[in-house]
Specification:
Order of helices and strands: HEHEEEHEHEEHEEHEHEHEHEEHHHH
Shape: elongated
Strand order of the largest sheet: 11-10-12-9-13
Largest sheet: 5 strands, mixed
Number of strands: 14
Number of domains: 2
Distance between the termini: 74 Å
CATH class of the largest domain: Alpha Beta
Structural class: alpha/beta
Number of helices: 13
CATH architecture of the largest domain: 3-Layer(aba) Sandwich
Length: 288
């Protein structure tokens, strides 16, 4: 009897854990919001310095402030008042964050440094790009500078790459392995803060990460080196939405080139990423 009871408790606990780990979120449709003039929206985030980060129990960053501007836009143009909920369950696992948004429905938005790709567009909806990313190759400061990506197999001989499954950063690492570094070893982590700690402590690792991790490292005086030969500037980040979401239309109306050039937007970038980020992004926009 006791064994049977314990077994039942175990099964129930397992089912509950499985349900929570595969949580699906939902929010109101844009169609319903236009009729009711209220919108219950769910924001799911994954930790990314400057973009969406839990600081003192409150999630702040570029994505959060952009959503705040979007809420004002909805009120001003459509008379819609937004009630939002921030879900933190997948904060420290980017892969789970992607899966959670994918399984959700309607008024759910993914906030992180999420790259817009052709593959992801088949599974998600995206807002227009809210920023151009610069992916950077980083190591411990004591590692010799890589001046030509084609020489990475020699300069980084014996080093291990750190990345996250399912990311464009992983794709870049795999290209490096395929084209220049066949013997490259790869280790996987759940989020890039882990990788930044590892390269700060050990010269035998390197990472391909978004530029904000480098800016954060410089501001925090971490022993990190950037290798410009590994810079990639073709990526753009977007706010993520489930494939069945009808919020794409108002987001396209809101997140325009005019908005990205506005004082409000530039203030958001400077506030969360710093003035160096503004100069870096302006340089990319000018093609320098």
């Amino acid at each position: 009897m006791k064994k049977s009871l314990l077994y039942s408790v175990f099964i129930i606990s397992l089912l509950c854990f499985g349900f929570n780990s595969q949580a699906q979120y939902s929010g109101d449709t844009f169609k319903k919001a236009k009729e009711s003039k209220t919108a219950n929206l769910t924001y799911v985030y994954s930790e990314a310095p400057g973009f969406a980060a839990n600081i003192g129990g409150q999630v702040t960053g570029v994505c959060v402030d952009i959503m705040s501007d979007f809420e004002f836009f909805l009120l001003d143009k459509y008379g819609i008042t937004v009630n939002s909920t921030m879900e933190k369950q997948h904060a420290n696992n980017f892969t789970d964050y992607l899966g959670a948004v994918k399984k959700s429905s309607n008024g759910v938005f993914g906030l992180s440094n999420t790259t817009i790709t052709a593959k992801r567009k088949k599974e998600y909806n995206f807002s227009p790009p809210y920023i151009t990313n610069i992916a950077m190759l980083l190591t411990n400061k004591n590692v010799p500078t890589l001046n030509d990506i084609s020489n990475i197999g020699d300069v980084f001989a014996g080093k291990t790459a750190i990345t996250i499954k399912g990311t464009t950063n992983e794709e870049q690492i795999m290209k490096i392995k395929s084209q220049y570094f066949p013997s490259l070893k790869i280790e996987y982590v759940n989020y890039f803060d882990e990788g930044m700690v590892m390269i700060g402590r050990d010269e035998n690792y390197f990472v391909n990460v978004d530029f904000t991790y480098y800016l954060d490292a410089i501001q925090s005086n971490k022993p990190i080196k950037r290798h410009p030969a590994g810079d990639q500037t073709a990526e753009e980040f977007g706010i993520l939405m489930p494939k069945n979401s009808d919020w794409v239309k108002p987001f396209n109306e809101f997140l325009t080139e005019s908005y990205r050039n506005s004082p409000s937007y530039r203030k958001i970038i400077a506030k969360h990423l710093g003035p160096n980020a503004l100069r870096l992004l302006d340089s990319v926009a000018e093609g320098n």
